[in-house]
Amino acid sequence: MPINPYLVFNGNTREALTFYTEVFQEEMPEIMEFGPGPGPDGQPYPPEHQTLILHAQLIVHGTRLMFSDAMPQNPVTFGQNITLAL
After folding, report:
1. CA–CA separation, 42 vs 68, rounded Å?
2. Structural domains in the chain (count)
3. Mean pLDDT per 10-residue run, the chain (86 residues)?
C-alpha cells in the first residue's frame, strides 16, 4: 500500500510546485483551484481565495506528492503542514 505525502502551504503552493517540477525535471501538473466554490458555508469563496490551490499532485520517482493551499483564516504552521494519505 503506497503512502502519499500531502503538503499544505500558506498560499504559496504554486511556487512550491514550480520549485519541485524544476528540481525533479517534471512537467507542471494539472492544478485545481478553489474557484468560486461553494465554500464550506455554502457561499462562494471571496475573489482573493478563488485562485488558491485546492489540489495538485506530482509523481516523482514513482511517489505521488499531493499539494494544497490552506485557507488564510486557517494557516498551517511549518512542521505541521504535512499529512500522509493511504
Report:
1. 20
2. 1
3. 92 97 95 91 92 96 95 89 82
